[in-house]
Amino acid sequence: MVTNRVRSGPAVEIKQPKRADLVAEEIKRLITEKDLRPGDRLPREAELQQLYSVSKSTIREALKSLEVQGLIKVSTGPSGGGMVVEVPLDRTLQLLQNYLFFKDVSIDDIYKVRQQLEPELAAGAVPHLTDADFAALEANIECCDGTAGPDDRGHLVRQRQEDMTFHDILAAANPNPFLRFICELINEMIRQLIEYRNDTPLADQRRFGAANAKFHREILQAARERDAARVRALMIEHMTEAPKHVKRMKGKLRGRLILDSEIRKRARTMVAAVGKET
């Protein structure tokens, strides 16, 4: 006769979720059920206390947790409280980099993904580009042209970072939100995580900038002509050539975690800043 026997041994402690964490989950459920969008306000603290039968400190801890996740923004004062916000791309990048920190990801890996996605992103954006988009693309090319501006290493590195804004403008015009998100995330990785050695010849940096500007001008012209197939072909070539320049300049990914203090707003102010230097 076989009997089921429970093995004796040290007791396993099962940790219960903190009350604030449970409340945070309930507030997420509330946001989902009420279909709250960025800009919509949560109920006031007192209402949340009553709704979930918890103390003020528990509500505040739950709101702080959601704020750290980037889901809400909490303000103080008579009209204060929680407001739903769009999760910042920088916060998403930070979480992704935390994951990639323990993986062996190379610049080649990143550009192989770009070679697959970026041409489709750009081609899909062509029918939706506006006159304002074309003006922004033109301004970006002018400020990032490697043949222009002072012969200063810091300036040239900032130009290479700002090259990504050209691709961000195309991404913003693409109607596929998931493709747009992935490509913008990769752009931000390149902008924030690729660094170049200080002994990289300035001539190599200028050649890279000039090559980018040439491709960007050709892509812009094809986009103005609403030639999506030409834009796709040019972007494939661009994404094939770019990593060669990065490696020639001894570019590498910074293998470290991103600090909260380094997260910045993705306002497109670099075009103006670089333009003033040129």
UniProtKB/TrEMBL annotation:
<dbReference type="InterPro" id="IPR000524">
    <property type="entry name" value="Tscrpt_reg_HTH_GntR"/>
</dbReference>
<feature type="domain" description="HTH gntR-type">
    <location>
        <begin position="17"/>
        <end position="87"/>
    </location>
</feature>
<dbReference type="InterPro" id="IPR036388">
    <property type="entry name" value="WH-like_DNA-bd_sf"/>
</dbReference>
<keyword id="KW-0238">DNA-binding</keyword>
<dbReference type="Pfam" id="PF00392">
    <property type="entry name" value="GntR"/>
</dbReference>
<dbReference type="InterPro" id="IPR036390">
    <property type="entry name" value="WH_DNA-bd_sf"/>
</dbReference>
<keyword id="KW-0804">Transcription</keyword>
<dbReference type="Pfam" id="PF07729">
    <property type="entry name" value="FCD"/>
</dbReference>
<dbReference type="InterPro" id="IPR011711">
    <property type="entry name" value="GntR_C"/>
</dbReference>
<dbReference type="GO" id="GO:0003700">
    <property type="term" value="F:DNA-binding transcription factor activity"/>
</dbReference>
<dbReference type="GO" id="GO:0003677">
    <property type="term" value="F:DNA binding"/>
</dbReference>
<dbReference type="InterPro" id="IPR008920">
    <property type="entry name" value="TF_FadR/GntR_C"/>
</dbReference>
<protein>
    <submittedName>
        <fullName>FadR family transcriptional regulator</fullName>
    </submittedName>
</protein>
<keyword id="KW-0805">Transcription regulation</keyword>
